[in-house]
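Researcher: Next sequence.
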Amino acid sequence: MATNMDMPKINVIEDSSLNAFASGLNRKNFTVTLSRGIINRLNDEELETVIAHELTHIRNNDVKVLIISIVFVGIFSFLTQILFRTLLHGRFRIRSNNNKNSGSIIIVILLALVLAAIGYLITILMRFAISRNREYMADAGSAEMTKNPWALASALRKISSDPYIEAVKQNDVAQLFIDNPLKKGTSFINEIFATHPPIKKRIQVLEEF
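Model: Next structure:
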């Protein structure tokens, strides 16, 4: 009511881990999903800030942004695969009577393949960068909505100790959660391709409000 938003549907994941996510593309199917663990193990103020975080995702249409980013990644992936298969199966064969021209064609195909692969990599990096930025924005929205950034920082500390949801297997789904529910190691590569910013950085930003 305070944010003039429609009440979303509420779902519960029967998992003792701590996590939550928002989903839906319009008012009819906006949903906030909470794990049983996050309901039972956070206090009222912490849970309130987590829900406010998810409501901010809904208010900012972050699910639509996520879908658009996935579509662009899919387009570049499709183009890269088509070019690779074209080269692999030799649709442009070298003809013995025109080796010079055939060589030029292969160079053009290789160049197009490299450019498509670079474009694909850039779109993936942009997608994950957008996802990380949206998490910061949702944290800020929660702090603005509840006037209690310290409670969200406390909630994130608890969530980071056990965010892993066994039912979640795909990165596209994991991207929706307040913290990544997939088990991943800490490395430079994982940070570049991370769907979420580091919890420590998020907590630091919240504590500076």
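Model: The helical segments are 36-41, 44-59, 62-88, 99-146, 149-161, 171-174, 188-192, 199-207. Strands lie at 9-13, 20-23, 31-35.
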